User: What shape does this take?
Amino acid sequence: MSEKIVIIGAGQAGCQAVQSLRAEGFTGAITMVGDEAYPPYQRPPLSKAYLQGQLERPRLFLKPDAFYAEAGCDLLLNISATAIDRVARTVELSDGRKLAYDKLLLTTGGHVRKLRCPGAELPGIFYLKTIADVDALQAAFLPAARIAIVGAGYIGLEVAAVGAKRGLQVTVFEAMDRVMARAVSPVLSEFFAAEHVKAGVTLKLNTGVEGFEGEGKVERIRAGGRLYDCDLVLVGIGVLGNDELARAAGLNCSDGIVVDRNARTSDPVIYAAGDCTRHYGREGGELRLECVQNAIDQAKHAAMAMAGKPKDYSEVPWFWSDQYDLKLQIAGLARPTDTPVLRGNPASRKFSVFHLREGKVAAVEAVNAGQDYMIGRKLIAEGRAVEACRLADFSISIKNLL
Amino acid sequence: MKRAFKATFIEDNGVSHTIEIPEGWSLMEGAVKHLVPGIDADCGGACACATCQVYVDPHWAAKLPAKTDMEETMLDFAPTVQPNSRLSCQLRMTEALNGIVLRIPKEQH
Assistant: This one.
């Protein structure tokens, strides 16, 4: 009898797994279950080109419907998995069905962290994670509207950039003392903050949100002890891994489903990939990443392992963000203890920051500097030692550092 | 309904795929939507991954817009780059490109 693989979660990782399972020669049955109305789609453009109206919905889909048919993947949408029975090896679905599996892959992604302050349930307060979220936001995302954005992370700042372009009055509230504090180093925080201010965005740093007020809908936001009028609110304060299903099934979880380097969970026939996992980083230590790179690469590794060809996962993570005409590209994960080396001048709007750890490049953050980014990625992967003075010397072509 | 124009993608093994791509879409998007093998496009068109490389037949290369700095630098470090390499996510379908022929490298990673 042919083997059955069930994939829970129809996002970037799930989609990649279908493709990679077939590429690795898996010939059994594949069923993928997704709780949204849409087949797997790209999330990164949601807060960028899709919100801006530059990318129509069909262009978000990762694959055409024919892909799933050709791959022999039964795609069940608008259905969630409600329980895993690890003894019977079945998954219970929200429509009452039970799916038997020989191997199970969890690509359940994440969900937005919600605000829990007074007034947080008022209409007019939006989050951004799905197509449906953006479609709902779009109706209120109108020129001249006063939008209060809570959180100056990627989502908050990308929405701020689109909003400023569209003519909204944008105010961003951030509890920390700099923007994108979790994602980038202080030089970049300062640079991006200045760019947003230049575009007309009001930035309120060190300003935690205390609550919302309004009659029937949100009309005011209370932050840093003051009240600000607003017409709508967008909250972007992070994402939590969807590990509830795995946790309920007794799998080892810790803000994410814990997996080994082969994307295997604490149950040998259950694998997990993407935003929902807590995995070993290439430099040791456990981490949970929210990015396309990890969704794709970890799904590939899960597929390899499920097809009986395991290979250790140790890819260099990479990320990007588009704000205004600025392309931010990051490879590797910098630590506060690394030595930052600035290459180029932020005033030219094209520069990068390399992060050295024990003389080797551990991370690179590049703004409109694709070459630095690509070379940085290579240097990180190869663990190459580079002298800080050569990195900082703009007269030396970055290519000569390879 | 948007106008659409033809593009032909030829795999490394010689298999050819002629598809229609709506005006304004990137050639990469067209290839992905038509399941042309070998266009990985990991980043979905953000010019962040260099996994949608194509070789453009010389006759067509001259009709393409010049590479941006970003495309140029991403290509510098893609595998199996040739002088006629382009990133198909950065090429928009227009009437002038109707019938364009593109070859797909053996490896994108």
In short: Chain A touches chain B through 28 residues (CB under 8 Å). Chain A has three domains: 4-111+239-306, 125-235, 325-401. The radius of gyration of chain A is 22 Å. Chain A has a mean pLDDT of 96.
